[in-house]
């Protein structure tokens, strides 16, 4: 049986403009034990709503072993929207899994 970690990416507020025109086109990238998933890009939006679910495979056999694991959640401005040549960093959070 393959166990899954489900991460729901809902929204962000008051992001920093990064496109040179007063907006950003953000996406969220989530890393969990070498697995990387991302949301779609919210074009020209400083208060984006994604409402996306990202699924990760969990190799650990029990919930108790997953508690305390870390998710790295980073919001970037998408280089494909605006004059930038790379994905520009906007925000980062480290989230630790707990039983709540």
TrEMBL record:
- Matching Gene3D superfamilies, A to Z? C2 domain (2.60.40.150)
Q: Any coiled-coil ranges, and where?
A: none
Q: Where is the C2 domain?
A: 1-100
Write down the superkingdom of origin.
Answer: Eukaryota
InterPro entries hit by this protein: C2_dom (IPR000008), C2_domain_sf (IPR035892), QUIRKY-like (IPR047259)
Q: Which Pfam families match?
A: C2
Q: Which PANTHER family match?
A: MULTIPLE C2 DOMAIN AND TRANSMEMBRANE REGION PROTEIN 16, PHOSPHORIBOSYLANTHRANILATE TRANSFERASE ISOFORM 1
Listed name of the protein: Protein quirky
What would be the name of the gene that encodes this protein?
QKY_1
